[in-house]
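pinned: reference chain
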Amino acid sequence: MNENLWKSRWSTDQIKSMLLEQMESFRKRDTGIPRDRLADVEQAAGLPHAVIVSGLRRVGKSTLLAQMAHKLGKEAFYYLNFEDDRFLGFQAEDANDLYQLLVEGFGERKIFIIDEIQNVPGWEHFVRRFMEMGFKFYITGSNASLLSRELGTRLTGRYVPIELFPFSFREFLVFRGQPMPNLQRMTTADKGSLKSALGAYLQMGGIPDALKYPELNILRTLYDDVLYRDIATRYRLDAVTALKELAFTLMSNPAGLVSFNKLKDQFHLGSVNTIKSYIDYMENSWLVFTLNLYDFSIKRQQIAPKKIFCIDSGLVNAVGFGFSPNTGKLLENLVFLALRQQSQEIYYYTTPGGYEVDFYLPEQQRLVQVAQNLDTPATRARELRALSDACQALKVKDTLILSDENENSLEINGVPVEIRSTAEWLLAR
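pinned: its structure tokens
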């Protein structure tokens, strides 16, 4: 049966030509700016573990591995891209035949670099088998749930997971060729330039190709690919219109609260479980993240509204809807992405008095509040009131307000409050 699915479609010469084309294309790839996560990939190079890079489509996973490949040397590895339609029908059992052709075409090598491995059913079987023979794997994938499930069952303890997000603010500045400011000696001009750059970053986002080719509608195409290829097709969904409308609603409401029950009624879907599944699919495809309320009751955490965050502000602006730029919510979304890259233990919090704190990090016992600015007494009082109420209800070591300017620290109920410029805080991470 396997022969009919893949190998029988192609002659040996055709497969060898495909492998050569993929290798040449990978070698010629524009490696762009060095990514921050390259250091993590390099650190894992000496380990026998597989390195798994996961993230949204077109976020730069292949480019990150191309940067690593340059350090390995062009004769050190095999390259495979399972997004290629010529691999349709490829199964894990075909790996031996494929390896034989790789050896015939490129000689014996001990490193595999593989793109979009989730397209191969049972991929973890041949990866584990080859690892036991001493091979090293660098792998990318665009489905978080699939990778997590299969890694957990087959590669337990033998992989290094690396999440790749769109460009950070620092990477965005490097991409634009903007000098990195000295945060210890910021002039007025430096601060103005940094604020302007942050505004551009909020508008454009950090998807590399979208920044490189602004004349193309890359973000819209990316969004459609995720919805139709990564979600509707993969999960065989019939209610594609409902999926599209739900995704549009979420993308139009970054950092907003949503109730699964209300969404079920709004889109006339059969149950809350259907809504939950659809949003899970979007999370698995790296389109959105959900944030739970922090509560000592797990049940209340589960039934409370969720906060929705999007993977990229440029994507929000390209496909969502809003009457105004909504800068405050996009800033909160940006801060979430920065926090999420360092910890998955993040919550929002509603105080006993009904005030909302944007983020609570229980491991650090830290509260984080995001404000576009603190220019008015009413805004300042609102932010401090929420933090004060939260400090009385939770174990808190320190609090942070991110706004447009640095200010002197203060205290609330004996808890230090740091007030930082969001732009400078992002660069200092």
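why pinned: The chain has two domains: 2-163, 167-320. The first helix runs from residue 2 to 5.
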